[in-house]
Amino acid sequence: MSDESQPGIGPDRWADLPPMEPGPPRPNTPARAALSAPTATAGRVRTDGRVRADGRVRADRSPPAERSSSRTVAPSPLDPGVTRDPHRVHRVLREEFPLTYDPLLRAWVLSRFADVAPALTDARFTHGHRPGDPPCSRTHVDVDEAELRSVAARTAHVLARRIADRTQADLVADFCHWLPAGTVAAAIGVPYRDMMRLVRGRAASALAGQCTGQIAVREKALASFLANVLADPDHARELHDAPSGELARAWTESLRRDPPVQIAVRRTAAEVRVSGGTIPAGEPVALLIGAACRDPERFRAPDRYDPLRDDPGQLTYGSGACPAVLLAGLEAEYALRALLDAMPRLRLAEGFRPERTGLITRAPRSLLVRPGG
Q: Is 101 exposed, middle or buried, given 0-12, 13-18 or 19+ CB atoms closer than 10 A?
């Protein structure tokens, strides 16, 4: 389900990153020297441990007795192994290096919710394309929510029935890959046989405008949602007949715990003070959405999927009106309803555990299920 492998889809403009190979040494401008140049801070370590002798900026939350074992070099979000398990690196960055410059990303890195969430909408940062943010919302024409709800339900029902009689199916390949495109196809009247070719091209812009490319993101978000719900049979049973509001909460919780976009890049338009120090103007900044959404300073038991969470929050989408955001929520709701209507005993395949992979976008590669239980 990689973006590059799907016809008509280029890289997600919202998640564009700078080149990831190490760059040439960066000049020591006065603003940068205060934060990143080893020679500028050598011998000037503050007693609270927030500025290191090597120039890294750090805010240590550990008790004083434990600080002697803290790391001296920040890990990179691109370190080996992060593709399979980013959460250990994210934890170290949040706790010890809330602001650090990463030479592989060629960007400053923010990882705490208190910094990442405001940066997504703060005017001091350039705005990328995040569906639901005000600049995005103003580009869309009015859409008929009732009609979108109808086509999402219809498309999910057709796809679920196609796999109901199998002994085993892969919901990523056989369902999640098709539902977002199929819903848009039905909404704009594209024949089913032309769905993948046209919906991923210009035709979809009639409905979604700049958010056409978000089809790939919705696929990944849907795969993680189904993986989270099906991991606990009790969740699936409780949500099957739940009101739309409860399903929306479960969807929001999945976007929080497993955001489909892990890193968003912005650039500072002005000097910005954050948890670990100050970022100069004109600098690229990597916002670790995956790290921020598991910040224990914001969420209780952040690694747990809790569809009834009373401290909800997600950073994948903004709060404004946008067809892509609306469709994503409707697809999640009707996907679960249609699958469990067609396959009441639907379960993950014996011994199968979803494996999420990816650095910039992240989701299960496969989701093997037994339709008959």
A: buried
pTM of the model: 0.79
What angle do the packed helices 323-342 and 145-163 form, to 10 degrees? Answer: 40
Tokens linked to 230:
């099906």
Structure tokens at 363: 């989701």
The answer to whether 222 and 180 are in contact (CB under 8 A) is yes
Query: Rounded CA gap, 81 and 91, in Å?
Result: 14
Instruction: Report which residue type is found at 185.
Output: A
DSSP symbol at 51: B
Q: What is the pLDDT of residue 137?
A: 66
CA 291, CA 116: separation in Å to the nearest integer? 9
Task: Count CB neighbours of 247 within 10 A.
Answer: 23
Say how far apart CA 125 and CA 271 lie, in whole Å: 9
Tens digit of each residue's pLDDT (9 = 90 or more) over 272-318: 999 989 999 999 999 999 999 999 999 999 999 999 999 999 999 99
Largest Cα–Cα distance of the chain, in whole Å? 70
